[in-house]
Amino acid sequence: MSKLDNIVSLCKRRGFIFPGSDVYGGMAGTWDFGPLGVTVKKKIMDEWWKFFVEDREDIYGVDAAIIMNPRTWVASGHTATFADPLVECKECKSRFRADKITEGFSESITTEEFLNTHTKCPNCGKENWGPIRKFNMMFVTHVGAVLPDDDKEIAEKNIAYLRPETAQGIFTNFKNVVDAFYPDVPFGIAQQGKAFRNEISPRDFILRDRECSQMEIEYFVNPKTWEENFEKMRALQHDFLEGVLGLPAKNLHELDVPAADRAHYSKRTIDFMFDYPNGEGELMGLAYRTDFDLGNIARESGKSMEYRDKVTGETFTPHVIEPSIGVERLFLAVLATAYTEEGKGDDKRVILKLPENLAPFKYCVSPLLKNKPELVKKAKEVYKKLRKKYNNVTWDDSGNIGKRYKKQDEIGTPKCVVIDFDTLEDNTVTVRDRDTTKQTRVDIAKL
Ligand code: GAP
Questions:
Q1: Rounded to the nearest 5°, which phi and psi values hold at 149?
Q2: Does residue 264 have a pLDDT over 90?
Q3: β-strand partners of 303
Q4: Alpha-carbon torsion 49, 54, 59, 65, what sign?
Q5: How do residues 178-191 score in pLDDT, each as one tens digit?
Q6: Which SS3 state, helix, strand or coil, does residue 204 take?
Q7: Is 214 near ligand 1, meaning CB less than 6 Å away?
Q8: Helices in 19-70 by DSSP H: which ranges?
Q9: What gap in Å lies between CA 334 and CA 326, rounded to an integer?
C-alpha cells in the first residue's frame, strides 16, 4: 500500500475521516470528519484564528452567510468565469477535466491543444472526444417557495449559489467593518467557513472536494504599498505553517503563478505547494487581488468602497492581498508530516507524530490491569484530575497495555499515563513517551 493509502486507512480505522454518506454508498467529493478528525481540524482552525486574528490588532474576524445575494457572483466574476474545461468521451460518455488528464496544461487549455495531445479516455481507452466546454463550478439552489412545476422565469428569479469562496463574504462586509471600527489601513478581515465547488473530478482523498472549508484573509492596503504588504503576508504564512503547525520547510515550495494561469482577479499569485505523499500539490494561494473586488462591488451596488486616510486625507479604494488556504489540504499536510512507520513485521509501529498543540489528546490514562478495582479507582481519580486541568485527556482500559500503546501511537497521543501498584504506595505513575517509547516515573502532582 502507498503512504497515502495507509493514511486513508488509518483515518477510517481510527475515526478521523470517513467517506461522506458512506452508509448509502458515498457521495463523491464529500468527506465526514469523525470524532478525532473534527478535534484536529478544529485545533488547526483555532491555531489559525489565534495567529491571524486574536494575536493581532489589525485583523478583524467575520462569519458571513453561505448563501449570498446572487449579484455578489456577478460582481465577483464567478458567474461568468468560474469554470473548468470539461471534455466528454463520445464513446463511453465519461466526463473529465481536460487539464487533469493531460500533462502540462492549465484550465485555459483549448480544444485544439487537447486534441493534439492524443489523450486516451481514462475510462474506456478510446480517443474520440467532443469539444471542450466551460463548466461553471458553482452549486445552484433556489431560495424561497419555488415548486418543481413553476415556470422557468420564477425559478430563475430565485436562483442562488452556495458560495464558492469565503472571500466574497469578507468583501461585502468591508464597508460595515470600516464604519463600525474605523480601522487604519492596512487592516485585514478574516473568515473561516465552508465553500462549495462542483468539481468535475474530485480526487486525491481530501485534496479536491466538492465541499471544503477555507480560511481566508483579505488584507486591505494602500495601492502604493501592495508589494511590501505582499511580502509581509508571504513571510507570515511561513511563520504559521512551519512555526505553529510544524510543517517542514523542505516540503513547502513557492510557485510564482504565470499570468496565463492566474485567477481572473489576480495580478500576482504565489501558490504554496506541499510535498504530499502522492506528489507535489497546491496547499494554499497568496494573491494580489488589486481593487478588483471592491471596485466591482462599488459598480454593482452603487455604493462607494473608498477609504479616507485619517492622517493624510488621501482617498482611495484599497487594494487587497489575500492568503487563502483550504483546511482539508492543511489537514492532509499535517497528517502526512506526522505519519511515521517504524520497525518491520510484528514489530512494526505506526505513529502519528502530531505536534502536541494538534494531537486529539494530550494524555491517555489507564490502569495497568483492568480487573484490579484499586488500580481502576486510582486511575479514574488521576483521569478526572487531568481532564479537569487539560480537557483533552482520554481513558483507555481495553486490551493489554501493549495494544493500548499501539492505539494511542496511531492516534498521536504524546503521553500515556499508567497507574500500577507502586502508584498506590508513592503517588507516582509511569509516563510513556509516544515518539521514544521511553518510560519515566513521574509524581502525579507534576503532570
Ligand atoms: N478566494 C480565493 C480562492 O478561493 P482558490 O485558489 O480557488 O482561491 C484557495 O482556493 C484555496 O482553497 C486552495 O489553495 C485550496 O487550499 C483550497 N481549495 C480550493 N478548492 C478546493 C477543493 N475543491 N477542495 C479542497 N480545497 C480546495
A1: -95, 10
A2: no
A3: none
A4: positive
A5: 999 999 999 999 99
A6: coil
A7: yes
A8: 35-49
A9: 12
- Establish whether residue 269 lines the binding site of ligand 1, counting it when its CB lies within 6 angstroms of any ligand atom: no
Measuring CA to CA, which residue among 166, 333, 340 is closest to residue 253?
Answer: 333
Q: Is the distance from the beta carbon of residue 328 to the nearest atom of ligand 1 less than 6 Å?
A: yes
Q: Which three cell numbers stand for residue 279?
A: 506528489
Residue 401, number of CB atoms within 10 A of its CB: 18
Contact 360, 411 (CB under 8 A): yes
Residue in the block written with cell 492516534: 411
- Ligand 1 contacts CB of residue 286 (under 6 A): no
Query: Cα(375)–Cα(366) distance, rounded to whole angstroms?
Result: 9
Residue the block writes with cell 505536534 = 355
Q: What are phi and psi of 127, to 5 degrees?
A: -125, 80
Where b means 16+ CB within 10 Å and e means fewer, 40-55 reads bbebbbebbbebbbee
Summarised one tens digit per residue, pLDDT across range 38-49 is: 999 999 999 999
**CB of 11 within 8 A of CB of 37?**
yes
The secondary structure of 224-267, three-state, reads HHHHHHHHHHHHHHHHHHHHHCCCCHHHEEEEECCHHHCCCCCC
**Closest CA relative to residue 166, chosen from 126, 111, 214, 100:** 214
C-alpha 318 – ligand 1 centre gap (Å): 23
Query: Cis (ω within 30 of 0) for the bond into 186?
Result: yes
Quick one: cell of 341?
512507520
Residue 183 CA to ligand 1 center (angstroms) comes to: 28
- The answer on pLDDT for 106 being more than 90 is no
Cβ 285 vs Cβ 270: under 8 Å: yes
Shortest-distance atom of ligand 1 to CA 165: 4
Ligand 1 near 330 CB (within 6 A): no
For residue 87, the cross-strand partners are 96
51 vs 39: CA distance, rounded Å: 18
